[in-house]
């Protein structure tokens, strides 16, 4: 199965069949040697193809992602799932707030404060 060789059933080894008698071991060994020589090139080609595919997927994703960033002083809402404040079922509010952005920490993380000026924990 590997390297273009066929699997031989143990019964065929003890009792010669057409398939086992017609095999040329020197040709088979040469073919295996050539395949082993080409394996490095095939791996390189696969790595190049994988990199192209990943680049294409990244380009597709980045073309559809909307980048949002907030500055200190902006008013925002926070997802109710993020805070785990209350679970009122499917008819409950999905967002809580509004909150004011106190500080931008980078990579979409912000320090928030409520309308009274109290800092919101775990933000």
The number of E-state strands comes to 3
What is the average of the pLDDT values?
Answer: 82
Q: Identify the strand order in the major beta sheet.
A: 1-2-3
Strand composition percent: 15-25%
Structural class by sheet pairing and helices: alpha+beta
Describe the structure in your own words:
The protein is of the alpha+beta class. The chain has two domains: 2-64; 68-123, SH3 type barrels (Roll), CATH 2.30.30. The chain has helices spanning 10-14, 18-21, 25-64, 80-83; strands at 75-79, 95-106, 109-113. The chain is elongated.
In short:
The chain is an alpha+beta fold. It is 43% helix and 18% strand.
Key attributes of the depicted protein:
SH3 type barrels, Reverse transcriptase domain-containing protein, 43% helix, single chain, 123 residues, three-stranded antiparallel beta sheet
Please describe the topology of this protein.
Blueprint: H1 10-14, H2 18-21, H3 25-64, E1 75-79, H4 80-83, E2 95-106, E3 109-113
């Amino acid at each position: 199965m590997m390297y273009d060789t066929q699997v031989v059933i143990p019964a065929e080894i003890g009792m010669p069949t057409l398939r086992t008698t017609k095999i040329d071991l020197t040709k088979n060994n040469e073919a295996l040697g050539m395949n082993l020589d080409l394996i490095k090139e095939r791996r390189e080609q696969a790595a190049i193809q994988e990199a192209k595919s990943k680049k294409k997927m990244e380009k597709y994703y980045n073309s559809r992602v909307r980048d949002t960033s907030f500055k200190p002083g902006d008013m925002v809402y926070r997802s109710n799932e993020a805070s785990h404040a209350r679970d009122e079922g499917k008819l409950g509010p999905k967002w809580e707030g509004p909150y004011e952005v106190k500080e931008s920490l980078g990579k979409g993380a912000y320090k928030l404060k409520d309308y009274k000026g109290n800092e919101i924990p775990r933000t």
